[in-house]
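ingest -> validate -> predict -> emit
validate: passed (alphabet ok, no gaps, 387 aa)
predict: started
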Amino acid sequence: MPVINRIAGFAEEMKAWRRHIHMHPELGRDCHETAAFVVARLREFGITEISTGWAESGVVAVIEGQGAGPVIGLRADMDALPMEEITGLDYASKTPGKMHACGHDGHTAMLLGAAKYLAETRNFKGKAVLIFQPDEEGGGGGEAMVQEGMMERFGIDEVYAIHNGPGLEAGQVAMVAGPIMAAVDSFYIDIQGKGGHGAMPHESVDPVVAAVGMVQAIQTIVSRNNDAQERLVVSVTQINTGTATNIIPDTARICGTVRSFDAHVRDMVEQRMGEIVAGQAASYGVSASLQYDRGYPATVNDAEKTAFAAEVARELVGEGRVDAEAKPMMAAEDFSYMLNERPGVYAFVGNGEGAMVHHPAYDFNDEIAPVGASFLARLVEKAAPLG
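emit:
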């Protein structure tokens, strides 16, 4: 893979950084040890402008280029997942119930690699702002950093992030203009009936049959209320009720997730779900309430910046190894909050064959770290070249 020679030269360092982080996973906003490790490396690189405590444990550092120019943000996520690792690797997690199963250890190592190179060479105008973010996995650390004024304080003009892609050929780069990751919402439906003996259902108001009816009706939102040309997923993932085979319970609970790309689709789903819950509750004689929580918005790449990033990737890995019209994913990503504030790109770097992210056998491919680090560094150098 044609990467920057200097970055290829410290591939073993990136591997060591990554595996250290992998052995010591942290969750949510409690990424203080990871942040301390990052800060120590940045100081070794000679970076002096380092700010900590963003979203509790996030780190933001600035590398000054040569002269005035744009301010380019580069983001990596640091948090792990609450999972038990089964890889059996020498560098497997040392913390029971916590694991880097999404490659955030690799993302952090790649950004550190880019930081080391950019701090040594400073072959660009303007500034590179390095963003090490906690709490991507559901907690909205990216949103918190934006709300705390990160973009304004550091004057960030555009922002970029990469994620490893299992199943994508190692070192291949994929992106697309417009939505690349979906918005995510969660719903919780609580049903109140009247419990009783399973042999005498006429004396009860059964929340189980009401729950089944609601689940069936919810499926029609995608098939009958949504334009078939607009992407939407509505998945019921939990039905919780009952304690025994001969007892009709008092209550039932339905939970699930909604994935979409457009704001009007989100609005439609929330409205229709409320109507379905109310209508089905009346039909079955139960009472029911809907809690609909909106999570991360869609991750939307800027068209101009996507064309720029794709060209940078082609120069790095070759024309045939860049897919600039990748298929969007229905998973979600809180880098969306940063892209809502500034134009930029979220891209994937192929991790090769192996377990998918969020699987207990997943492991980041250290061989792709020089590719990701080189891509991040080249984005800065190409955005504001010297001379």
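The chain has twelve helices and 16 strands.
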